Amino acid sequence: MKFAVKALSSGKARAGVVHLGSCPSSIETPCLLLSTRKGLPIFISPDLLSSLPSPDSNLLQFSPLHFSEGPSPKTISSIGGLHQMVGLHEYGFAAVARDSIQCLPECGSTNKTGASFETPCGRRLIKPVEYMEMITSMKPNLWATLADEVPAWANNKRNKTSVDRTVKWLDECIARSPAGGAVFGSIVGGSNIEERKRCAQEVAVRNVSGYWIGGFGLGESMEERPSLLNAVTDNLPKDWPRMICGLGLPEEVLQGVAAGVDLFDSAYIYHLTIGGFALTFPLDRTEKIDYNYQLSDQGSDRTKINLRATVYRKDATPIVEDCCCYTCQNHTKAYINHLLNVHEMLAQILLEIHNTHHYLGFFRSIREAIKEGCFEQFQKKFVQSRREHLAADVVSV
Amino acid sequence: MALRFEVLGRFNRARAAQLTLPHFACQTPLFMPVGTQGTIKGLTTDQLEEIGCQIILGNTYHLALRPTSELIDELGGLHKFMNWPRALLTDSGGFQMVSCITNLYVAGIFYTQWHFAYIFQVSLLHLADITEKGVTFQSPVDGKPMLLTPEESIQIQNRIGADIIMALDDVVRTTITGPRIEEAMYRTLRWVDRCIAAHKRPHEQNLFGIVQGGLDPVLRDICVRGLVDRNLPGYAIGGLAGGEDKDSFWRVVAQCTAALPEDKPRYVMGVGYPLDIVVCSALGADMYDCVYPTRTARFGTALVPEGVLKLKHNAMVNDTRPIDPTCACMVCKNYTRAYIHCLVTKDAMGSQLLSYHNLYYMLQLSRNLHSSIVEGRFVCDFLQKMFPKGDVPEWVCNAMDVAGIDISSCCSS
Predict the structure, then answer these.
(1) At the top level of its lineage, which domain of life is listed (chain B) (predicted)?
(2) What is the pLDDT of residue A296?
(3) Mean pLDDT of all residues in A101-116
(4) Under 8 Å CB-to-CB from B221, ≥6 apart: which residues?
(5) What does each C-alpha distance from A351 to A111, A159, A210, B168 come to in angstroms?
(6) CA gap B192, B207 in Å, rounded
(7) How far is CA A189 from the centre of its chain?
(8) pLDDT digits (tens, 9 = 90+) for B45-75
(9) Nearest CA in chain A to B320
């Protein structure tokens, strides 16, 4: 894996380029890692993946825990690794134990032997040895070391333990590190600035190729997050990539970018999709406020629409007029509304395609803003316009 | 009449033909996937085109409920609504009401997220009442009594806009005996006249009549002759695929195909298993539909030349072979049984990939039937793969005998 920072804006936000062995093209950062279940998107089948913008959509994230009930690491090795097993040879895979959708850290059951997660197969305790066995067999392009993540309300003692443990497991994981595959050292520390700093400093001196920032999206507030993020990134070398989990919403992603994070996962797309929502917020950075937008009282705001709403029953227009995703090029809101009402899987497939496409567009506009040196304004304007719309909606009701 | 049917090749009774419909020129024999509610579960129209799907079947009953035929009409018809450029066929809506496939529907409750509609049908089963007027049933939406008449069925189908529409028939299970079958057969003929009278778009949509008569050859004969007299664009053989024994099943198909006109398409409704399709094609049928391939996919079963492969089975956990090494579909080219095993019944993707493979399998079967009917060799290849020990069922041997196809090389005895 190769990474280089190409541009900076507002001090810390950076635009960079990451190159992974299996991907034919380099991928620009900040970028989005697409969520998968067992290596494939949750709804978008592999032959439809190629309809998403490339190479933006070529980075996928999975958790080794997805395979706790098979196939065995031995079988996966004999198939040739994850890329081979899921037939996505020109994609990049990032392995992280936590995936914000299905494998959620269960700090109460985590102990000194391993990290506990709530998974669809029940609660699983995974030890560094087992974790590394899975990593070795799956051969992801990059992987995060096993971490002990605690929620924001954990007490200081528990938090401190989590930092000590995470660093210890980092060393154990590195010791068993397979050849090939970039190690991302995990950094935790909850909502304690000192612990965050301490952990970052410890990990910064380890022999890793990048950093995975854990423990966010677990109860900390929007207000306290920037200082926690900065406590980490301020203590990391600038030349290595930083990846984070748990910052899903656009505003949260912007906070991460502002602090100097490069790679993001997001459960946002998944939750929108299963809720029947489609993203519609404007991606055009020069857009003026659209006062003609009709307020719908069925759960629509200017960021997304609820396609279950009856107002869309006969709407023969695409979700977003000039969107070039497969869904908007081929189907109407009326059809998706029908599919949702009759509980057909195709609804989720079409929505995941559109939402992914749209969110990738959001990341593209972030990169553009950084390269033009105006990221701070971009972030301010984005957050402000969303707040204004919400305020206007409240007043007009 | 809005179709052209041209036989391109024959082997005894079997025919390979071109069926030209308003939206697509199809090759028969062909299998039609069932897209109940305006979609094939889990597949996009692009994927369906990719695997060679020619006609999709839509269920009038479901579509009339949601989103309603009026809405579909207002938005330009079902083709436009679902963005399917090829052909569509709608059934009359009658079958869902007297459907006898309850156990499979009940099993579908497992996947309530995606199979909600089926729960309604289980409750409908006991609430249908058939009179000369039409079929009376209780609306699953609000419990009000509703009547589906031949006229109403055709009107709904006119609005939906499929290339082929089906006459409302009085369908009874073949496991029933007695005067009810005769009553249903004559009523079917009377209803066909009402359907013909009500049909407003004969130059865009082809109305097929359905042969009924249970397992009684005399009744079947009367029905065939009655329908042929009406000079319809095509004919379906109905009332089968409901639990009758195979020996009775193939004899009814053989009788009907022998009596139906040579120059019009013959559609065996609700069929089915690959073996049944091969036999019916040998006997001279052209079109088939069934939920089996997609439904069995959702339960983790793949269709293979040897029969079926149960991907859920523990034996698959570490099996690194493809589902079917002879299959050229995207799933078999990229995935192992082990990987599909870990997906099926747990993740949506498992259903999708298996449905894709199973439909590809059925459509490839159709293509193979079309291209090799003249050679006649195909039937033997198919049977040898499915019955490598030569234990071809007796009913198949009898049927092939009547079809004039020599399968002695496949049979051990």
Answers:
(1) Eukaryota
(2) 44
(3) 92
(4) B213, B255, B259
(5) 39, 39, 33, 37
(6) 9
(7) 20
(8) 999 999 999 999 999 988 998 999 999 999 9
(9) A79
Chain A 124-163, residues with CB within 8 Å of chain B CB atoms = none
Which of A35, A86, A89, A80 lies closest to A62 in space, CA to CA?
Answer: A35
Radius of gyration of chain B (CA): 21
Which pLDDT does position A308 carry in this prediction? 96
Residues in chain A: 397
Calculate how close chain A gets to B116, using CA atoms only, in Å. Answer: 7
The 10s digit of each residue's pLDDT in A161-209 is: 999 999 999 999 999 998 888 999 999 999 999 999 999 999 999 999 9
> In this structure, what are the phi and psi dihedrals at residue A290, rounded to the nearest 5 degrees?
-90, 100
Given B42, B318, B343, which is nearest A345 (Cβ)?
B42
Q: Tell whether A122 lies on the interface with B, counting CB pairs under 8 A.
A: no
Three-state DSSP class for residue A111: strand
- Give B-chain residues touching A41 at CB under 8 angstroms: 349
Contact B75 A314 (CB under 8 A): yes
By C-alpha distance, the chain B residue nearest A328 is B83
Q: Is A80 on the interface with B (CB under 8 A)?
A: no
User: At B104, is the pLDDT very low, low, confident or very high (cuts 50, 70, 90)?
Assistant: very low
Q: Are A137 and A180 in contact (CB under 8 A)?
A: no
pLDDT in tens, A325-375: 999 999 999 999 999 999 999 999 999 999 999 999 999 999 999 999 999
Put simply, whether A242 touches B (Cβ < 8 Å) is no
Interchain proximity A350–B44, CB inside 8 Å: yes
What residues in A contact B75, CB-CB < 8 Å?
314, 316, 332, 334
- Residue A303 gets the label, from left (phi > 0), alpha (psi -120 to 50) or beta, of alpha
- Give residues with Cβ within 8 angstroms of B28, minimum separation 6: B15, B16, B17, B18, B19, B265, B286, B287, B366, B370
In chain A, residues with a C-beta closer than 8 Å to the C-beta of B315 are: none
Residue B345 predicted with pLDDT over 90: no
- Position A262: which residue type? D
Report the run of H or E that residue B102 belongs to, with start and end: helix B102-107
Cα Rg, chain A, nearest whole Å: 21
Instruction: Give the best residue of B116, B323, B342, B357 to mutate against chain A (max A CB count within 10 A).
Output: B342
Q: For residue B114, is pLDDT > 90? A: no
For residue B183, give every residue at least 6 positions away whose Cβ sits within 8 Å of its Cβ, in sequence order, or none: B170
**Integer Cα distance of B291 and B302 in angstroms:** 14
Angstrom distances, CA of residue B323 to CA of A38, B305, B329: 18, 10, 10
Q: Which residue has the tokens 């089963």?
A: B125
Dig out the tokens for B94 from the structure. Answer: 């009658």
Q: To the nearest whole angstrom, how far is the Cα of A294 from the nearest Cα of chain B?
A: 22
Q: How far is B111 from chain A (nearest CA, A)?
A: 11
> Chain B contacts of A331, Cβ < 8 Å?
83
d(Cα B211, Cα B192) in Å, to the nearest integer?
10
B328 reaches A (C-beta below 8 A)? no
Q: Which amino acid is at A368?
A: E
Backbone phi and psi for residue B148, each to the nearest 5 degrees, phi listed first: -105, 110
From CA B362, how far away is CA B275, in angstroms rounded? Answer: 11
Provide the token pair at A200.
């970052």
Catalytic residues of B: 91, 289
- Interface predicted TM-score (ipTM) of this complex, two decimals: 0.92
